[in-house]
């Protein structure tokens, strides 16, 4: 004869909600694809593929979220994008 045991577990889940801001990159008629890609790789630590995809999204849609995170981390990155001549803002 076999005995089956039922085990009841109590699981506690805690979620931490933090507001993630976004750096939005906007299209312009000034910067080349190469400049945008190189800047995204340097400033936002994108891979080549990520930077290329973001540059195409910006080109065809007019804007793209290129980085998310806490505001204190995004501010210096957005400043570097602006200094490089790109159009960007944090929302």
UniProtKB/TrEMBL annotation:
Keywords: Hydrolase, Protease. SUPFAM superfamilies: ClpS-like. Transmembrane segments: none annotated. Pfam families: ClpS (PF02617). Residues 19-83 form the Adaptor protein ClpS core domain. The keyword Protease applies. Gene3D superfamilies: 3.30.1390.10. GO terms for molecular function: peptidase activity. InterPro entries: ClpS_core (IPR003769), Ribosomal_bL12_C/ClpS-like (IPR014719). GO terms for biological process: protein catabolic process; proteolysis. This is ATP-dependent Clp protease ClpS. It comes from Flavobacterium seoulense.
